[in-house]
Each structure stands twice: as structure tokens, then as C-alpha cells.
Queue: 3 jobs
Job 1
Amino acid sequence: MHILVTGGAGYIGSHTTLQLLERGDTVTVFDNLNNSSTISLERVSQLIDKPINFIQGDLIDTNELHKLFSQFQFDSVVHFAGLKAVGESVAQPLRYYQNNVSGTLNLLQEMQKANIKTLIFSSSATVYGDPQALPVTEEAPVKPTNPYGQSKAMIEKILSDLCDSDSEWRIACLRYFNPVGAHPSGYIGEDPSGIPNNLMPFVSQVATGLRECLSVFGNDYDTPDGTGVRDYIHVMDLAQGHLAALDYLANQPSGKLLTINLGTGRGYSVLEMIEAFEKTIGKPISYRIVGRRSGDVASCYADPSLAEKLLDWKAARGIEDMCIDTWRWQSNNPRGYREQQ
Ligand code: NAD
Ligand code: UFG
């Protein structure tokens, strides 16, 4: 199968590209390198010992997209490309809607013209907003609380309307919970630019000495230790979820819209994550409790049973693997891919 991977140079895209290549698929990565570099793909290429077919381009540029679809005959598309920083989306909503929603519309139009109707879309647990019941099932109301989440919810709606209009489309919206970890080689991993927004990259940068102290955003939530609880999922498990979703769609007798949670079903608090990381590295992580971060919810973790039932997929890696692999990546690449530039 020839699979177009948009955003394939990024964190989740590079791990999924590697797994697709490992199982024998042909992959073309399309990425504008807005939040990534080609070094991730060079590393994937070294791990698989094969060249990577990479096209630098932007989903917003319809000419580039048209050229891409004229040049190759894809069987399906795995669509990671998007902007993902919640705070930035509040400050720059137009940029987020333009990039995420218009970019996806451009992609869908080209797919339709080329008669390629199988798509995996990177959605997010952020579409649930502040969930009323836990664990969160796919039936929970979609109530995003920021422009980033809105852009994901809008795209899901567009995809649902598209499936209603034409029964040949096979689409999976995968709602990821909190991706963490790295490839066990320590060769590819998450490389945020600037100060990390997310917990685990920040914790691992404190561990290497790049940052002084972690701010824990609030210890007065209604959770067992007062800190926020999330469903952290190893990026290798997450990548495997995409392969499982592709197989599921390929085996459907007719068109299909699948909306599915990819999480572990187990929530960990911020303090539990810090403790697990300290155990892995054998030294304390310096942290202090500060006020709540605006927009954060107390707890969010998945009911992942639908993914197990339909995709025969289940997260296999636990908190220990998440910490060990994060640490291997971070300690081998303290400045991420920039070390190489
Ligand atoms: P990432 O930023 O590492 O990867 C996204 C990639 O898309 C980057 O390489 C970027 O350069 C590229 N890109 C962005 N806009 C583009 C455009 N217009 N044209 C071409 N390329 C473009 O992010 P990630 O963590 O790998 O996330 C992948 C997807 O998963 C995103 O859609 C994100 O919203 C979604 N997601 C991520 C998380 C998370 O916490 N990492 C959680 C839920 C959902
Ligand atoms: N946290 C801290 N200090 C930090 C960073 C985070 O205490 O420096 C806390 C947060 O308050 C939260 C937990 O750690 O309780 C996790 O925070 P993250 O920023 O790592 O993750 P979020 O759950 O806030 O959001 C992430 C992605 C979103 C995505 C969502 C669900 O950033 O894009 O998971 O998939 F939508």
C-alpha cells in the first residue's frame, strides 16, 4: 500500500511512518516543517535502512497539493499535519482555523479528485472539553473549550458530512489522549520548540538540567492528590493504533466513519508522573506547586474498549516504559534534533 502521511516529520507522524515502513508499506511524507525538521526523517531512514520519500509542502497551498496527487497514486492518507498548541490557538485563532480546517479541506478536495477515499485523521481528547463522566466514551458530548479543540471538532463534523454524502469514504477519527514516550532506540522522539507546554517534555528537560524547576499547575483539583489526572499513552502504542485503523477500514465491505478513543484507560496524576520519572532516572525532579493553568480540567481518561473491540488494539506499554523511553530519547538528545543542526 502507498500511504500519504501528512505531518510525517512531526512527533507522532515520524513514529507512525517508521511502523508503516517496517510492515512493508510505501510511505510519502508531506510536511511544511513548521514544527519539525528533516532530521526526524533521516533518523527514521537510518532505523529502517531505507530512504524516505519526503515532499516539503504546505496543505494551504493548493498548487503544491495538486502536484503531489498528480505525481503519486496513493491508496490512503494518514493526516497528522496541524498546529497543536492550545494557548497559541487562543491567541491566534485565525491561524489555527486556517491551517487546521482549511488545510484539511484542501486535502479532502484533492483526495476526492484523485478518488482516494480512505483517511485516518488525528483528532484529540480535547474535543470532550471538561468531561462530565469518566472514563470518557466516544458518546460523550463534544464541547471543546479552545480554538484548537474547535478546529478538531469542526474537522470531525466535515468528515461526518463527507461520509454521509458519499458512501465510498472510509474515515477514522482517532481521538488521542496524552501521547508521551519515544521510540525505544532513543533515536526519534518529541522535540518541542522553546519552552515545552506539555508535562513530560518539561519533566525530562528538568532532568537533563536544561530547565531548572517544573511548575505543577494546581494541587487543589478534585483528584486523589489534588493534581491533574490524564491518560498518558506511549507514542509507539499510538502509532500502532493507526496501523490497526488502516487495517480495519481496508476490511470494511463499504464506506465507514469510525470515531474512536486511543488511550490506555488509566489516569495518572502529575505527582504520580513525577514520581515514576524520578524512579526511572534515580534522582529527584525539582518542582513547585503554582496556581492552576487556565483551561485545564481536573481529570480526563479514556474508555478505550471500542478500540479493543473494533480494531483489536490495546495499549501495551505502561508508565515505566513511557518514562524509560522518554528518558533515553531526552538524555541522548538533550537539545532534541537541534544538536544535529
Ligand atoms: P507535531 O507538531 O510534532 O507534528 C505535526 C506536523 O505537521 C509537523 O511536522 C508540522 O510541521 C506539520 N504541519 C503543520 N501544519 C502543516 C501544514 N499546513 N502543511 C504541512 N505540514 C504541516 O505534532 P504531533 O504531536 O505529532 O501531532 C500530530 C497530530 O496529532 C496533530 O494534528 C495534533 O493536533 C494531533 N494531536 C496531538 C496530540 C499531542 O499531544 N501530541 C494530542 C492529540 C492530538
Ligand atoms: N502540567 C503541569 N506543568 C506543566 C505542564 C503540564 O503541571 O509544565 C499538568 C497540567 O496541568 C495537566 C497535566 O500536567 O494536569 C498534563 O498537561 P499537558 O499539557 O501535558 O497535557 P493536556 O492534558 O493539558 O493537553 C494535551 C495536549 C492537547 C490535547 C490533550 C488531549 O497538549 O493538545 O492533551 O489529548 F488536546
Note: The chain has one domain: 2-340.
Job 2
Amino acid sequence: MRVAFASSSLASTQADLLVVGVPADKVADTLAGLGDFAAAVVAVAADEEFTGKPGSTLGAPTYGRISAPRILLVGIGAGTLADVRAAAGSAGKEGRARGAKRVAVAFPGTAVGSPELRAAIEAFAEGNYKFDKYKSTGKKAAAESVVFVDIGEDAAAVARSLALVSGQELARDLVNEPAEEIYPESLAAVAKSLESDTVTVLVLDETAIREKGMGGIYGVGKGSVRPPRFVHMTYTPKGESKGHIAFVGKGVTFDSGGLSLKPSEGMMTMRCDMAGAAAVIGAMKAIAAMAPAVKVTVIFGAVENMPSGTSYKLGDILTMYNGKKVEIHNTDAEGRLVLADCLSYATELKPDALVDLATLTGAAVVALGDWYSALYTRSDTLAGTLTARAGEAGEGVWRMPLPDLYKDKIKAEYGDIKNVGGRAGGSITAALFLAEFTTLESWAHIDIAGPAFLDAALMHYAPGGTGTMVRTLARWAESVGDSSSK
Ligand code: BES
Ligand code: MN
Ligand code: ZN
């Protein structure tokens, strides 16, 4: 997708679809630029009771009265950042539904240099995304260009936003691809393909994983004919560096539950269980393109969790990378075992901050639904930073407690700890489990099980992978790189 800027009246703008953002109760004023077609559209809007309420839309053909063959009015209410984002998302979605190659958008408030402009570019692309690779018929083309009408040029915003878009779309594609396409080796190969003059990628195979003592990754992976991989990516800025941040992702390319097999309904979408790894890979792609002045480490363990004669078993005791012994009570609580080794390894690198992303628990979905990811950290500073960056990116995170009081729930009879903590507070006890594998003060865990994959469309997002947290993480790196001190 390209982003262009045109200075033309609404009536003369060349596009397959013209989208006009309408502030609340400003229909006639906003549409004045349609010239002698304005009165007709204002009349239709009145008839359809379209007044510019946020989230409302009204589409109509233009019968040659203006250059664009179709117009879409989208309400932007009071014009907040969230309103603009939602409107741009609707524009992208409508453009895709109609196969519009060139979409022109006129949104009040998206001035050069404004956060609204970046939000509009990013949300338009989100709305325009649809995974239709495996459809034989009825495909609609993605937009080739989105053209902002009459606001001047903002090349810097375009470059940064398109970097985020490409990272997020990579994450969405990786999640949407079937598990027969994306398995540990192929996921590691995608990471490897991002190698460049600033990005290095180290991949460990199953033998190396075992030799390194990564008992969590090895144990979960050994039931599958697809061997596990451990991946360590490093982005090093060319000039000065203002610090070092590290991202860890859960890369379970398919979660059948293992011997604690999931029922079919629960297993249906479990190709999404590598969404954490997909997000950190996508963030790395975006960061490499934006080139911020901060070192960024990305680590993920890629495994397929399968039942077989070689699977890890209930009652097994796994020795983890940091030496802790974990008693297995349920092979479906596999993500925390994979993450644990990654977190201990990442801790050795002494980053200034460490954040892991994981589709870790059904309990997080029950608690917070499809929009909010559950954020766990003992650092108020890191909680504040991540919440702020997520707010700018338009992604939902909600901080949850990480109380020592519940640690008893993961005490084991034979090993040091067990891998399940019971139904109550299941997302919290999973986070407490992870906390056993890093000594970093500045560590956060984000359970993305709800937002990572949508069973049905939500706002402007199509069903399937969302690429959640790619923009939050990449914007975080961007802001650390921009800051004058660490
Ligand atoms: N991958 C799942 C969690 C999940 C559930 C992600 C729904 C996305 C949507 C995870 O590995 C899992 O199976 N968790 C179990 C843990 C339990 C056995 C302690 C769960 O949440 O039921
Ligand atoms: Mn599981
Ligand atoms: Zn899982």
C-alpha cells in the first residue's frame, strides 16, 4: 500500500472510493466541497439519519456527479484520536469490501505532523487487511493507495506508519497461515529472512536446545515430528544506542494440548498459539525499517504441542534452562514452559526492560474478552510506558495484579513448582509461573490470548489474526530511540 497526498476539492478528487469524515452535526458544512452534488448527499444523509455520530457510516454511488464513483461518509463525532482511528478503519474495510484500488480520504484533524494522521494511516491498513489467500473465487483487491485530500505532505509519518503496517501484516499472515505451513522450522526461517546489516538471527535446532538445557522447549517439542527451534534476533542501531529492550514471544505453532488433548472446539483455532512470536517478529521487521537508536532483542521458542509416543507426560519433571524443576500436571499448560526458557535466556542478556507476549490462557479471554490484553508487571514505570504506547497505537491493554499471595497455588509435591495453578485466577497464576524465570525488575508479561485472534469481525478487524501489540512494541522502541536519555 502507498500513501499519497492530493490537493483537490472533494468533487474533483480522483479515486475509486471517496471517504469523508464527518464531525457530529456538521454534515452540510463538511460536504460543501462536493460542489453541486452536495445538496443531494446532504438530503440522503438527512433521510438516513446520518449525523456524524462516531462509528456511523453511509455509502452511496455518485452517478458521475463527482470524479469518484462512490462516496462513503463516516462519522467522526468529536474527532478524538480514537474517532479518527475508527473512521479510517471503516474506510479501509469498505475499500476492501469493494475492491477499491485507490481510496481517497478526507478526515478533519489529520494535519501534517499530527498523531491523527499516523492513526489514520495505520487504521486504514488494518481495516483493509483480509486473509483471502486460500479463496478461489470472490477475492477483492487490497488498496494500492490511500490518498489524503488537502492536508499537505508528511513523508516522515508515512515512512514510520508504513513500517508498522508491514510488521503488523506479517504478524497477521503468520497467524492466519495453517499450522501445516507455519511450523517451528518455517517460523524460524521467516525470522532468518529478516537478517540485514542491522539485524542478526541465531537459530538453535533441537539438539542444540537439548544441549543448552532448555528443558521446557525440548520437553514440549518432543511429541511432534516437527522439531522445535529457538530463535534469537538482535537489532543493533548503526549510530549511538539509547538502551536495550528485549521482547519474548510464545511460538507454539499448533497447540493440540498434547496428551491432555483439547476438545475439537478448543483446538480449532490453535494455529494462533504462535501469535506472540509472530508479534515480536513483526515488531522486529517494523523496527529494522524505522531504525531507532536502541538495541532490540527478540527471542522466541517455536514448538508444536502434539500427543504421541514421544510426548512429555503428566508427572514428568522438566529441568528448565535456569535449573528449576517443573512438575507437569497438564500438557496443555505448555506455553509457560516454552516462555520460561526464553525468559531465563533473555535475562542473561541484561536488557533494560524485558516484555513477553503470549496467547497464554483461556482465563485471560474470560476475564478481558477480545479487546484487552492482560498486562502483568511489578514495575509501575514499565506498566506506565506500555500502557501509554498501547494508547498511542490504539491497542487495548489492562493491568492485572501479580500477587505473591497466590504463589502457593503453583507449589509442587516433587518438583520446585508445577505448571498449573487451578481454575481460579488462571491467567494470574500463569504469570506468577513466568515470574520464576526472570530476575529482572523491569519485566512485563502480556497475555494476548483474547486480542491475538478473532473468531468474528471486531470493529474494522477481519476475523483471524490481528497482529496485536506489534505497533505497541515498535512504537516503544521508536520512543526509546527518540528520547534524549534512557
Ligand atoms: N494456548 C492456550 C491458551 C489459549 C486459549 C489461547 C484460548 C488462545 C485462546 C494455552 O496453551 C492453554 O491451553 N492454556 C490452558 C491452561 C490450563 C491447562 C492450565 C487453558 O487456558 O485452559
Ligand atoms: Mn495449551
Ligand atoms: Zn498454548
Note: The chain has a mean pLDDT of 97.
Job 3
Amino acid sequence: MMFRSQIVGCGAYLPARIVTNDELAGRLDTSDEWIRQRTGIGERRIAADGELTSDLAFHAARQALERGGMSGNDLDLIVLATATPDETFPATAVKVQARLGMKRGAAFDVQAVCSGFIFALAVADNALRLGQARTALVIGAETFSRILDWQDRGTCVLFGDGAGALVLNAVADAGPTSRGILSTHLHSDGRQHDILYVDGGPSSTGMAGCLRMQGREVFRQAVQHLSGVVDEALAANGLSPADIDWLVPHQANTRIIDAVGRKLGLSADKTVVTIERHANTSAASIPLALEEAVTDGRIRPGHLVLMEALGGGLTWGASIARW
Ligand code: UT7
């Protein structure tokens, strides 16, 4: 029997504290105008002292499970995407597993930075398709505020903290019109390390380190690779851009989102954009945007949803789902 991963619940969590561009302009040589014009960001959420990635992930996961009418013990698998784990080990996913009261199955992390959610979705979807698991929770959760150089205006204004989650159920595959994940497409290019990385880690400096980015070069490669992987995902499913109901992109920069949308010929009102309030939450940005658009009624059952992301590595990927 062939299986397909159907999406049965979606959840999100944002820390309470809002940090506006103006607040940052009070302590850095930047301005609300520069940040909005160059990135589309207006404000970001920052986790409280002692509030960890696993806390954000747990709240998002619990909401996704509740909405799917499920509890932790119904799950076979948790795949959590993060570049900001609570600890070097164990995986943040097992902390979430324990808090959800899930006493069986397996939980682990996936590390693909801002593309992490697409990579985690691919891992979970493959497990469900193969019959290795029947129910999976996919989480993107980050506290990037902890790995920012708060003196570097070129990076610290860009990121925020948050988490989002999806619950997937394996169902019999009834062909291309059945609901669920249609395909996932993953890429990486390790030669591009130096344009986006963190200058620390357990095996190198023994400290967590700070994010370093050559923004202009990442921007250039993002538009190129995202356009390519979106074409790949459409072609793999025999779809054209006109078939897509919603583009749900990783939220790094409105200019990147617009450029990819333009190349696709998708009108801006078919794109879910949350960057103004969330900034770039790395692996959490796509599930946060999905949750918002599902909750406000934009994304409805049967809609075709195209997700895409690019991040450090470089890594990039896309997925198409029939909601
Ligand atoms: O999610 C992972 C993937 N990451 C991304 O996709 C990020 C991709 N890159 C970007 O989004 C953009 O490159 C940035 C938003 C990071 C930067 O925008 P940009 O248009 O590429 O600006 P730039 O780096 O070329 O800098 C332009 C100017 C520079 O000044 P000079 O050298 O022209 O005098 C910067 O020093 O803007 C200056 N600048 C700032 N000014 C005010 C840089 N950061 C700031 C700031 N406030 N926060």
C-alpha cells in the first residue's frame, strides 16, 4: 500500500516580547526606515531570559496536536528543525517528546538552518510514505536572538524568535488529487559556507558563536536557487504557477519573496507574508506563516500550497502540499 502524509493540525508560538525597529535604532546606528525598505521587517519577537527553543517548540506542538484532535502518545515520530538547540545534545526534539507525554516512537533534530522546516518535512514525509511511522510532528523552532552579534547592524536587525508545527497522518494514497504532501525537494552546496555561518560550535571554539553573513551574496543566490527549486517542484507534479493557491515562502526579505513571486508570475495577493511582524525566524518562519494563513481562513482544505526556503550551508528546498 502507498501512503501519503496528510496535514491534520497546525500550531504556532511567539514569545511575548516585541522589539520594534525604533527600539533597535535607540541602541544601534540604524533606522526603522532602512530596515523596512531593505527587508520589510517592522518588529520581531524575542524570547524571555530562560525561555528556550524547546519551550517555544512545545507550545507550538501542543497547539498543533490539539487542533488535530490528538495527544503526544498518538505520535510515532517528532522531527524538529533548529539551528539553535537548547543544548549541544541531546536533541531539542526529545525534550519536546517528554513534555508532550510521548513515551514511544522516536524524536530527533534536523539541522538545515533556515531551510530546516522543509528538510524536516521531507524526513517525516518519507517515513510516513514508507510506513515507518503513521503519525508525525514536524516542528521548526528557533531562538536566533541567542546567536546574534547585537553590535552588528547588518545582521542583528534581521532575525526573531518563534516556533511552528504541523501534525501529519499517513493515509492511503488515492492519487494526485488526494490531500497531503505531494513532494519535497532538497538541495545543498557546502562550498558556500562562508557567506552564512556561525563562528563557533562545540568542536571548534567550544562556544555557541555568532551569526555572520554576507547579505548581498546570500540575497543573489537566494533568488536564483529558490526560483530553480520552485520550478523543479512544479514540474515534478505536472503543475504550473497558475495552479498554486498559496505561496508560503521562508520569510527572510520581502525583496527576495517578491523577486521569486515575480519570476513565477504569481500575484502578490497569493503569497503569505509575515515578515513585517516576525522578522526572519529561520526554521520557524514557514510553519508560523502556515498557521496564520490557516487560522485566518486563507488556506483552506484542497488548496495547493507551495513552500520554499534557503538558508546557511547553503541549503535550499521546496515542497508542494494539497491542504
Ligand atoms: O534566512 C537566511 C537567508 N538570509 C537572507 O536571505 C538574507 C539575504 N540578504 C538580505 O536580505 C540583504 O542583503 C540585507 C537585508 C541583509 C542587506 O540589504 P542590502 O540591500 O543587500 O544592503 P547591503 O548589505 O548592501 O548594505 C547597504 C548599506 C551599507 O552601507 P554602505 O556600505 O552602502 O555605506 C550597509 O553598511 O546599508 C548599510 N546597512 C545598514 N544601514 C542601516 C547595513 N545594515 C544596516 C542597518 N541599518 N541595519
Note: DSSP finds ten helices and 13 strands in the chain.
